[in-house]
Model the fold of this input.
Amino acid sequence: MADQKLVEKSDKASQLTLGFGLGQTEPLAGSSESVGKKKAATKSNSKPGSGKAPRTRATAESMAKQQREISVSEFFAKNSHLLGFDNKRKALLTTVKEAVDNSLDACEEAGILPEVEIWVKQTDTDRFSVRIRDNGPGIVKNQIPNVFGKLLYGSKFHRLKMSRGQQGIGISAAGMYGLITTGKPIQIISRTSSRAVAHLYKLAIDTKKNRPDIIKDEAIEVDFPHGTEVTIELVASYNKGRQSVEEYIELTAIANPHATLILHPPVGATLDLQRGTDELPDETKEIKPHPYGIELGTMIKMAKDTEHQKLGAFLTGEFSRVSPAVAKSVCAKAGVTTATWVSGMETPVIEKLYRVLQDTKLKAPSTNCLAPIGVEAILAGLLKGIKAEFYTASTRPPSVYRGNPFQIEVGLAYGGELGRDRHDENPDEEKGKREPAQARVIRFANRVPLLYQQSSCCTFKSVLETKWNNYTLSQSSGAMPRGPLVILVHMASVWVPFISEGKEAIADYDEIRKEVKLGISECARRLGTLLKRKKKKSDFAKRRDVFTRYIDEVVEATRSITTFNKEDFRQSLIALSQNYTAAADMEFDDHGKVIKKAKPGNDLGLANTVVVNRDEETDGPEALFEDDAPKKVANVSLKQSKKKKKRRK
Amino acid sequence: MADQKLVEKSDKASQLTLGFGLGQTEPLAGSSESVGKKKAATKSNSKPGSGKAPRTRATAESMAKQQREISVSEFFAKNSHLLGFDNKRKALLTTVKEAVDNSLDACEEAGILPEVEIWVKQTDTDRFSVRIRDNGPGIVKNQIPNVFGKLLYGSKFHRLKMSRGQQGIGISAAGMYGLITTGKPIQIISRTSSRAVAHLYKLAIDTKKNRPDIIKDEAIEVDFPHGTEVTIELVASYNKGRQSVEEYIELTAIANPHATLILHPPVGATLDLQRGTDELPDETKEIKPHPYGIELGTMIKMAKDTEHQKLGAFLTGEFSRVSPAVAKSVCAKAGVTTATWVSGMETPVIEKLYRVLQDTKLKAPSTNCLAPIGVEAILAGLLKGIKAEFYTASTRPPSVYRGNPFQIEVGLAYGGELGRDRHDENPDEEKGKREPAQARVIRFANRVPLLYQQSSCCTFKSVLETKWNNYTLSQSSGAMPRGPLVILVHMASVWVPFISEGKEAIADYDEIRKEVKLGISECARRLGTLLKRKKKKSDFAKRRDVFTRYIDEVVEATRSITTFNKEDFRQSLIALSQNYTAAADMEFDDHGKVIKKAKPGNDLGLANTVVVNRDEETDGPEALFEDDAPKKVANVSLKQSKKKKKRRK
Done:
């Protein structure tokens, strides 16, 4: 319907191209005419007699009349792809994602272990009704219309603290998309406590004015003590596999082991992912902006808006890590004092102060605004979700970009069943090719899985830039490494710089890329060690094979010389072979030296790494080698991992 | 400054990772403690005695207090990377780009041949002042504050017509970025005619309220009769090469041969690109939305907002291509009449009408809203800017995505000097590799060069998806083709779906990708023909070489048999060889058949293709072979191309 060719004879532009392979037979009189016209073009650009209407000339006045304000909802309605509504499949995912993100955020802030239930029902061809209910704290009645019926409205934008939502766009945008495509309003039921009565709203967003139209507003009885339920009907399509709602829910469970997630798909069995731990992530604290990260203009603005009157109070009160002593010394260097009135400061003075602050040594921002997933949870998640042989994870120390604290976590899973079915899974792979499939990257930002725009993502670029050949994986220049490998990357930050409002990929800041690459290298180094050892082991095994293969011939050959017990001789040769190639059963360190074999067992006394021997069908992870990292490190208890596995089944 | 590591002992998150390769020596008491804590976690999540402060529990009420409206300027100030201000280098380019785009749009609307002059001056370390002046129609005084000091304000958003600007964000965002980074307001001088007095404004954008703060507002004398001059001071960096302001200006000249562009860089010579043609692009007309493209919700909204009272008038008046006859039949099928009152229609009735409309055969939208560059201008631009051997171009017929008409144009340049210096130019290429460099893609949207986010661009993905091996170019799976090749892609549309507000790449709509691929195939087929012929020619030349190499030996060998004139014999052998391998001098068609050699000359009587023999140092393009397309096609006059080249020197 939106794809038909337009070949109108009256249109000059298309005439120029009509001849290209379309087999038109009419003579194109217009063509030569148009070339002739071009030659006859005059500076004045008026072409009397050329058959064209004279050009309408806009003036400053006529153009001024067209100038209008654009409402932010109009803007995003027209640019719905910016919000993740490019196509029907993605529309469904984005809708579920925005609602679930909000539910998880609300539960965590209220200290409630989240339980989110999702119903997806097909109502017509290409039409679905999506209902998401959580056990969160609910939403105060008079806030509901703005939260769900207005873009750029929310509680998370103006604070520096890690959360899934940050823009105040997501859920209203999903409601708007539903309204635009089906004409149906968004429905919200919310109850703030078992003592309060629940309330139902139906809202349509007025895109021209970016404000909610209240369609229905009434008290209602519900069977849940507290929580919020959102229902949106939208044009969408439901698929399984990569980039599906299912994948999103499964990955969300990996990054949020404290959450119970239940999905009722339109067809097929319910996906019931019970929580794997009863501990909420660490509580995060809001922080003040750090002087290193802000821009000069922001500081000028802050000085204008502050409630503090004296410069000293302003500096210590509005910024992170500016102690009274620091404030005093900074003021002195800038030629002012802590008693200077903020309101009387001119721009050049603030600029001086700004420059002094940038050159002053300050403590890095506090990082209790962040709650990383943690290596244990990453390993547990990978163990549960991916049947590999080797698992490792690493949480980087916090770092800063543009003044925003952030923290990178990386996990790797390698081998096992990953190599076996990847060829079917990977749609990019052409059949008949013998190259192993490309590695898969699983991306998270503030515990939310990112499923689209992978190639634009800073984390993906970091994977490409890593020299995987150094870790014995095959990789052609500028491409993904090849092999049975899954790479998990998580960025936790008070403000994740997404490349679009749809929050599908992380923007490519140097500081972030550097940290991701360091995290990947840490994990890849451990993997490289395993692979090198495996290679050495297989080299020795080959040597033994060659020797063993000739034992029978040697036995035959020597028989003709003298008589002796053939069987005895063979056995002694086999013993000899096993003795000389015993190395094939040994473990070797990085430099090929024999190391004492680690005892297989349930306690993984080693750094953030789990190895499962899937070939021998053992039923649990096994410690294979010691990590090459320094000794004083946090350990992963296998028991815990196993417990989690069981719990989350 | 923004990259320091944060290793705080008080922070649990960082403790977990302290050991990783950083060589810390202190014992990490906290580590095991934290693991212990995890094990002790209880369902209630309150951990008395664990040493942590009790968790603060947000309630619906406390959360409601934090809910706030977010101004669109605040949003984009925090997300400056969405607008193309991710880094200092890009900030400079984006600022120039937004101003130049506006200038070109204004000139064209007013029917003025554009002349845009740009000054970039360094004012401090990392600080530049950018001034852009055009000869456009100027801006009415009272519109200036909103146009430059408010995001989402403009004349181009609400109409369906091709233009460079479309969002009403660009130039205000550049001014906002300047203000945020340097504290300096944006300065605008505008004059609407030689009879009017010029006016100067200095504006700071109030980000909290998204409205202009007027700093200065005065009449001023200027030496230009009409036009606008914008000055922005910003934190930036100035570089040459790829993705630089220079590249942007040069590419803009290729796509806008009617514009004169003059750049005064902070150092080095002025870049003076005079226009190559005095003809403005075809005037574009505003169109109404086409019923095929709109969403149901939009139609409901239109029915609510329309000034038409009767359904017939509404349908014919507010949509493209709905004639009174079509309106009548659509109404009948939907169970209403053209005399039905629009205001009384319920949603289900509109939905019925909408569905009937989608199933009704309608003429495709008019395409006089588009002004493609045209094959002549693309070829002229490529000939001027790129020293290749082979050039071809193609303008596709218009098509439609989401109801928006669009048109794709593709140009190819191959061989010549492209192969010679690409290894230095391409930063991705590692030294010492013998593979030819990857092809380069030059992207345009509504005549504006796109320099960033290439890998996310629909045009780039189309290049990757093209099977270049079919056209005898080397390409590994999922990668760019390799060879001395430049691929130009232009999308002209009433609404280009950019992947972000920074307008750096085109979103990946199926309809668009399909058209781009068809355009590329058209051009690549012609290139493939050339390359196959070249190969055949070189095969014959090799045969001759072998034969010639042995002539002397044959002469020597036969001498011993009998006496004869050695020189005569050699000459006759050479003649023989030339006769038998004359094919090496011939031209061959696709199937290896000899074709009559086209006469080299100045008139290129062939389809949209130019071949320049750079090896023989001829000074002009030469017609080498006939195109395989049907005969009735628009021709490219070489004379014109040469004229353009000379003019634009």
Observations:
- Residues 125 and 235 of chain B are 9 Å apart (CA to CA).
- Chain B touches chain A through 168 residues (CB under 8 Å).
- Chain B has four domains: 1-38+58-70, 88-273, 291-359, 367-649.
